[in-house]
Amino acid sequence: MTRIPFAAMIGLFFTSIFFFCAIFAPWIAPYGMAEIVGDVWEPSSDEFLLGTDNIGRDLLSRLIYGGRTTIFIATAATILSFTTGAILGFFAAVSGGWVDQVLSRFIDLIMSIPSLIFALVVLSVMPTTVLTLIVLMGLLDSTRVFRLARAVAVDITVMDYVEAARLRGEKIGWIIFRETLPNALSPLVAEMGLRFIFMVLFVSTLSFLGLGVQPPQADWGGIVKENKEGINYGIQAALYPAYAIAILCISINLIADWVLSRTTSLKGGRG
């Protein structure tokens, strides 16, 4: 049995806490997400553990519900980006020729536009909903996954077992899902953790700029935006979601580093 390093155990512990709170937020949060329960920016007390926000809502409850929204959007967008990017990357590498060239040049074109600017332009003309955020973030990030998946798949497609599959007359779908994917899974799983971190930061940035999750829904970037004026008066309400973002990102990074350390070479179904 492989022994889990201490750093990875810390990452797993905090990540589990965040996902547990996100899943069971309605039962854990002491108050409702948009329920006004006190005065503006009340300090920490037995009634309000982290105090209240800019309009008197319990800050701990807002953080829990905000974590639920942020983690859900980041997780869904990460799954979408990896599904889309990995399949297209494998398809380009296995097909080769003009298919590879067309897909690669199109991805290069999309990547030449800064993701944040691209997202701001799209969200300024489209209704800002959770589904829109997930689709937009997932498709934008799939370009990075495409480059990784293609780079890994190009090395795999020259292996003997892939050539044998071609000689047997196997179709592209078989080569992608039965020959390429199992051997590329390890680096992709490690990269998934890093992409999840970028998704958390991306959605938080969009919300801070006012084009992400819209009120009365809560997310960590929006909570920072709502309470940023309190910093001028020594009120730390805007810093708590920033701490949560930092702890989650560091925890995921510790897990990703552990996965990377175990997969220094390509492994998979042909092991």
Q: What does this protein structure show overall?
A:
The chain has 271 residues and is an all-alpha fold. It has one domain (6-262): MetI-like fold (Orthogonal Bundle), CATH 1.10.3720.10. The protein is built from 10 helices and no strands. The protein has helices spanning 6-23, 25-28, 59-95, 97-111, 115-125, 130-156, 160-167, 172-208, 220-227, 239-262. Helix 1 crosses helix 10, helix 8 packs parallel to helix 9 and helix 8 packs antiparallel against helix 10. The radius of gyration is 22 Å and the shape is elongated. It starts with 5 loop residues before the first helix and ends in a 9-residue tail after the last helix. Residues 265-271 have low confidence and may be disordered.
Q: What is this structure, in a nutshell?
A:
By secondary structure, this protein is mainly α.
Net shape? elongated
Query: Which sheet architecture does the biggest sheet show?
Result: none
What's the CATH topology label?
A: MetI-like fold
What is the H/E string?
Answer: HHHHHHHHHH
| CATH level 4 superfamily | MetI-like
Strand content: under 5%
